[in-house]
Amino acid sequence: MEWDGILTCDNKVFLLETKHKMTAKHIENLINRLSEFQNKLLITDSLEFKKLLGNIMLELLAVRYLLTN
After folding, report:
1. How is residue 10 annotated by DSSP?
2. Which of 67, 61, 39, 55 is nearest to 5 (CA)?
3. Superkingdom, according to UniProt (predicted)?
């Protein structure tokens, strides 16, 4: 199965492509690992990084919700 993603930050677009089988467990592990980056928002001055990470977290929280409901 192929999963693609598109992230936007201001006027930039990031295209993501992976080629491997994703399971609910893989997605949950990814969500947990990426959640560790929330602390990095507190120490960075990069507004672009904050916006990009915020977009990722919103999408991951939506995936988590859909997987558990």
Report:
1. T
2. 55
3. Eukaryota
